[in-house]
Amino acid sequence: MLLLHGTYWSRVWLPVLGRLAEAGLRPLAVDLPGLGRSGGELTPETATVPALADWVARFASALQISGPIAVAGHDIGGAIAQHLLAHGQLEVHRLALVNSVTYDSWPAPHVARFRDPVVAASTTADELLAARRQAVTSALAGAATEQLIADYLDPWTDPRVRRSWLAMAGAADSRYTLDLVPALKRSTTPKLLIWGEDDSFETVEHAEKFASEIPGTTLMRIPEADHIPTENAPGQIAHALIDFFTT
């Protein structure tokens, strides 16, 4: 079971990892290059959704993962997951999306402003950390504590991670999900959407549209949760993922 992150890092999956493993699944929450605890560094060319999907496919090959694989994606990680399915880069037998980017729902304004090279180049480390603190605090909603916020922010104290994040923000482009819609509409692969209802950017309306247009899709709403619902309802979400991926 491959778990992909987006503009945050694999920390978003930590609340459910233990439960998934206890259920007999083999969850692999990977940090993309230059993000979270991963080595390397992203560039504007390697930070696009197609390039990151290629990297994930190589990652799976390096681990000698063969046969059907379950994939879950959060945020831009959801775009990567959709790309892997639509282009057949992995044999995805079930797909779960958690507050994922879809259609033209992204990039959100607080990310999109960094697509301007002048803005990105003039942003200081303190300014980026402050912006990330604000975004993380909102995304965690009622689960936000100073300790949890600090835990999420820790990777961004590394200049290399900040540069990689700015590259991902700069490469964010909704055409990468819009281009997938025809293939997704032809797909019969079962899909599960798990959505924090209070997300003001990746709104539940986007999830409703996806569920109504893409075959084999089920939508599960998480009330009183924002962009990172795994922190608000880990037991409920883990149970849903276990049922979905073991059925």
What does this structure look like?
With 247 residues, the protein is α/β, with parallel strands linked by helices. 46% of the residues lie in helices and 13% in strands. It has twelve helices and six strands. β1, α1 and β2 form a beta-alpha-beta unit. The longest helix has 16 residues.
Feature tags:
single chain, 247 residues, alpha/beta, 6 strands, 46% helix
Fold blueprint:
Layout: E1 2-4, H1 14-22, E2 28-29, H2 49-62, E3 69-75, H3 76-86, E4 92-100, H4 109-112, H5 117-122, H6 125-140, H7 146-153, H8 159-171, H9 175-178, H10 181-186, E5 191-196, H11 204-213, E6 217-222, H12 234-246
Parallel strand pairs: 1-2, 1-3, 3-4, 4-5, 5-6
- Computed Rg: 17 Å
Number of strands: 6
Largest sheet properties: 6 strands, parallel
Distance between the termini: 14 Å
Q: Are there runs of 5+ residues with pLDDT below 50, and where?
A: none
Determine the oligomeric state from the structure.
single chain
Strand/helix succession: EHEHEHEHHHHHHHEHEH
**Mean of all residue-level pLDDT scores:** 97
* Amount of helix: 40-55%
Major β-sheet strand ordering? 2-1-3-4-5-6
The helix-and-strand class reads alpha/beta
Number of helices: 12
What percent strand? 5-15%
Specify the overall morphology.
Answer: globular
Summary?
By secondary structure, the chain is an alpha/beta fold. It has helices at 14-22, 49-62, 76-86, 109-112, 117-122, 125-140, 146-153, 159-171, 175-178, 181-186, 204-213, 234-246; strands at 2-4, 28-29, 69-75, 92-100, 191-196, 217-222.
